[in-house]
Design brief:
The protein is an alpha/beta fold and 383 residues long. Helices cover 50% and strands 18% of the residues. The protein has 16 helices and 14 strands. A five-stranded mixed β-sheet has the order 6-5-7-14-8, with helices on both faces. Strands 12-9-13 form a three-stranded antiparallel β-sheet.
Length: 383
Amino acid sequence: MQADQFNIRHLAALAAVVDQGSVSLAARAVNLTQPAVTQGIAKLEAQLDVSLFDRRPGGMVPTEAALRLKPRVDVALRLIGSNRVTAAQIRAFVALAQAGSYGGAAALAGVAEPSLHRAVGDLGLALGVRLAERRGRGLVLTRSGLALARRLRLALAELRQGLAEVAALRGEESGRIVVGAMPLSRARLLPMAITAFRRDFPLVDISVVEGSHAELVGPVRDGEIDMMVGALRDPAIEQDLTQTPLFEDRPTIFARAGHPLRAGWDGDALRRYPWILPPEGTPLRQLWRAMFAEVGGDLPAVPIECGSVMTLRQLLMSDDYLTLLSVDQLRVEMESGLLADIGPAPGAISRTIGITSRADWRPTRSQQQFMAAIGQAAQDMNS
């Protein structure tokens, strides 16, 4: 079962029965008939393949599965905002927010375009807001639409985690963990962690999304990515995120094998050659500036900005460029003799590598175990 296949009224009925302790009281709380609540609970139990309540003369007693699922349902219902919203409407609007057009959204959701258009319109009516509007030949979400899209993505993330927790109760450590990989984590840290984790949890899938901090932080905030691994940012500007340090990385200066500076250099020599660096605002760019503040003098030219290690590697091999990177990011190229480590960055130059997640994120057991595997891999790398 997928998170976007739940009947929202059935979820509301589940939460109400847990809170009220009886079907009759729950029915009044969610404005449904008693048979509708009973049928909704039965449908959920069939979908989840678990018993959610013990039926007793004194009322309905929630099982462990219901108790694990209920906090996730509460959050999802709050984010969705109305029991009148349907799963089809949620699927349609999330697809529209992702695709940016009704045609693209219909293809993404696997439905006819008129059906998707109608579902989005009905969702707007149910919530009493305008969700999208035409701009020329294009389509843009309104401010209300953008806010709703984020809330629905977070709601689906909560329900996915609820499904994973119920599956774990059945003895099935399954599901999917989505991890954002910033450049430094891709070379050794994440591969080591994934390999170790999969030995213990072979039924849990791992999806690695590569990107820069700027590309990954939005999906982390929206619940599309569970966590991202890489250089941490200033906590003062990431207050809605939790950052867990793993280790300090000290970058080094790289060039092609046979570069004129291979035999030795000073600050003046470093300024004579062009540099390839990630964009302004990234930790490495800030460290590069701090490095030259340490050695003194003007900053050298940076004719190429690039955050891709694969592209950067080819550029370094083509000319006398310099760059600043972690040894782990170019270890294979160093060992093969294609590139050379010409020395550590001067001064106390380092960056903190760690895990970033939403501040209100409550990881499942498998997600906790995966983070532990990342922590162990970090220790192994730096021991």
